[in-house]
């Protein structure tokens, strides 16, 4: 994607500077880093980037942009994977970056809650929470860069969804600047508050369509002072799902992650991190990375030990390694991370983010992989993910010897094949990444008329001037 | 509340029968049971009660009522406590009861999910799920009568919210008949599905303002094959909160209930159930009823035992009883139930459903109780609830020797006092019961202009003819 910039308002940038001050408005080359995507596939542009430092300044930015008839693309850490925060009409859009609003306004350990501004980096917030003896469970590969407001706007998932839910389930309250510049003040810190329609739900996962989240009130939990991590080798994906069921029962609500990986995960991780120690000597057809965690009187190590014993007894586990210390646990997770980097190093490829009912996951993967390999025998399928949630990243690496345009054609074809199979399984084309601009065509192609009607009705009602994140999620006409 | 019925459309009932058939339409005396509230405080009336047997018949009912310009009051089991499902304009409203749509459409144990029609009784659904070896965690006093659609429309809470969340967190998908008679088909069974704006959130806790929920897709969990229940005696409410904190850490995510009760709970329970065995000989200033549950390899009995030992060591527990079998556990819970019946037997009284931040709960209760007793020394305060969620039912029983109109005046005064204190604590007037028609004045008095603006905008956009549950939650003019 690359778009020419011919401003409809030639002096829009100047007028924004005049209105908001040069402290807030970036223009020209300085906007470039705010106009590209995380993977570096897309470099777009914008009239300006606005960087407010307070909720009042966000209000001023929204009012100034709206007065000029400009679209606003709200932006957090820019780590989204679906172009939700990348402008697509550079001549008509400004980016509003929340990166300067990073303050923890309140951390009430006695209430297990915190109020944090939208621009706070997830990892920094988690560290501050940990320093207070508590725990915020959202865990993503991008947590060193992503920002809380973006996590909430995209209802981010991650590796701990299994136990703690998506971001939606961690939000107690929101402060939002609406498209008309008013502030929705819903920063409740109540764990239970059932006063009818829960307005904040509109903005969670709303991809910035109805306003800009400026601050968030979040649930915190007791810190898990015990964590046990294990890698289990298995004969095939259905066995991993069978093992998940056993673990779900055996460890009840203490299992915090259950990740499935194919054997190529090891190869990819080693390509990315040549020094990475491999935990098992032999290669196996499938792996599960399991984390159990807890605090207090429950003996987590013992639980993992006994669970693994039962996994061997059941015949499901072919081999198994329990991390003996934090370094070993980190090493096991590094395989999961390295596999992603390894895929990127192999060049352009298809990345998907799919969910199907758990009861159909193994059949879906088998069918989709077979269909792809029949069509493009030189491709490599890399299917991995949060199996317990029915969430699989079925990625396809085209034959690296192909010409660049052939690779693009294969990626395109593979996506079509996967989505066709997916539709028969009543699955989702976006289990956790959202729709943004990247998945809009696939989303719209599957949008039921009544859903489209409701989305259009909401957008017209809540943002009649179409100021907020135009071009994201769906086109109204 | 009692309202005269003078139909604006004298032949509305006849026209509904003509349109929908006598199989579906109840009129006259037969409507009475559908027009009263759970406590028996209110007997209203309606033009007719419509009892559809399928989603298509719900569509026909909505279209027929809308064509006549009638308001629709959707109704589940009628166990709500805020008049959300009781008509308030009998001459202009029909009740649409979902009681004939009770089918479990699908139970996919391998996916830990089920699809059930809105009229299914919660307890019957839970039993069916248990027969399949799984567990649906929503637990309410009314579960023998309340219906799933009502639970979702009101985002019901209950005793297990602590661990499993409000109803919202248990919903995977919805089927809803919209105010124009169209069907929103969102019966997804995916555990993770992040395709942008999550439309179903509008209807969860929406109190029927935007449509009638006809079917629900729900999360299921592994059955907790081990449950441990204990009653702990304490010196005061702050000690109960301190004990909760200890339990939250010691038992991490395995604690499924932590209920606080004052000493009068024992008296009230005995008044209601004279044969109830009292678990402790002495009376104590405060009690906590604690439940820990789990499955598989975790030893729940041992965990409870060790937790209680640590509670004694900490000096917080004055006495403690662990149920040795199911009958004893049932007996402990019967105190909690009996306390409610006992309050009802004492005659008309103030019932509240409040939440404040947990860090301020003890102060709030102390301040509110003191303010009430200063104003009305003859009253009895009964404060109990789900402390872990910051949710307290601060009820006030007026002096029974007062005349009925004096009692009503005291209830009214006590509510005002409680709400005044509550406002200073940034609390909620409805932690779990919703707003309905009963709490509408108190809700509207606290409704921020921006919230009112958003609610009005949504209602106008989604139900321009104001067909769905008019008079509930807030008045637009």
From TrEMBL, chains A, B:
Molecular function terms, GO-annotated: catalytic activity; FAD binding
Residue stretches making up the FAD-binding PCMH-type domain: 42-223
Flavoprotein is among the record's keywords: yes
Key word Flavoprotein present: yes
Alphabetic keyword roster: FAD, Flavoprotein
One biological process term in Gene Ontology: respiratory electron transport chain
Identification of the protein by name: FAD-binding PCMH-type domain-containing protein
The organism of origin for this protein: Puniceibacterium antarcticum
């Amino acid at each position: 994607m690359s778009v020419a910039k011919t401003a409809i308002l030639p002096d829009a940038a100047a007028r924004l500077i005049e209105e908001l001050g040069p402290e807030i408005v970036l223009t020209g080359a300085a906007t470039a880093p705010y106009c590209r995507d995380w993977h570096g596939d897309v470099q777009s542009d914008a009239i300006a980037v606005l960087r407010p430092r307070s909720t009042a300044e966000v209000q001023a930015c929204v009012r100034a942009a709206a007065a000029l008839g400009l679209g606003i693309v709200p932006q957090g850490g820019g780590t989204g994977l679906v172009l939700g925060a990348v402008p697509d009409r550079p001549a008509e859009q400004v980016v509003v970056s929340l990166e300067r609003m990073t303050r923890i306004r309140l951390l009430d350990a006695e209430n297990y809650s915190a109020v944090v501004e939208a621009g706070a980096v997830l990892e920094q917030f988690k560290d501050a929470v940990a320093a207070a003896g508590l725990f915020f469970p959202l865990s993503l590969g991008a947590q060193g860069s992503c920002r809380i407001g973006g996590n909430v706007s995209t209802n981010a998932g991650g590796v701990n969804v299994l136990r703690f839910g998506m971001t939606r389930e961690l939000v107690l309250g929101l402060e939002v600047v609406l498209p008309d510049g008013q502030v929705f003040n819903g920063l409740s810190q109540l764990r239970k508050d059932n006063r009818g329609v829960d307005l904040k739900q509109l903005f969670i996962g709303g991809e910035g369509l109805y306003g800009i989240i400026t601050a968030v009130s979040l649930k915190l939990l007791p810190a898990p002072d015990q964590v046990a991590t294990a890698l289990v080798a298995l004969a095939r994906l259905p066995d991993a799902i069978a093992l998940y069921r056993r673990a779900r029962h055996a460890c009840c609500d203490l299992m915090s992650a259950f990740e499935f990986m194919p054997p190529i995960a090891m190869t990819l991780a080693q390509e990315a991190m040549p020094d990475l120690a491999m935990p098992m000597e032999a290669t196996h057809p499938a792996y599960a990375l399991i984390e159990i965690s807890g605090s207090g009187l429950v003996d987590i190590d013992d639980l993992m030990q006994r669970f693994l014993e039962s996994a061997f007894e059941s015949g499901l586990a072919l081999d198994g390694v329990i991390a003996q210390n934090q370094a070993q646990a980190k090493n096991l997770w590094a395989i999961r991370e390295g596999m992603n980097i390894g895929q990127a190093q192999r060049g352009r490829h298809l990345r998907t983010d799919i969910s199907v009912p758990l009861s159909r996951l193994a059949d879906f993967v088998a069918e989709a992989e077979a269909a792809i390999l029949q069509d493009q025998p030189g491709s490599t399928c890399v299917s991995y993910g949060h199996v317990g949630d029915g969430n699989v990243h079925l990625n396809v690496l085209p034959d690296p010897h192909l010409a660049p345009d052939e690779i693009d054609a294969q990626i395109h074809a593979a996506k079509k094949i996967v989505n066709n199979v997916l539709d028969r399984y009543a699955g989702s084309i976006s289990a956790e990444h959202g729709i943004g601009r990247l998945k809009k065509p696939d989303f719209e192609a599957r949008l039921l008329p009544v859903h489209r009607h409701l989305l259009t009705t909401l957008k017209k009602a809540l943002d009649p001037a179409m100021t907020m994140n135009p071009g994201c999620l769906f086109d109204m006409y």
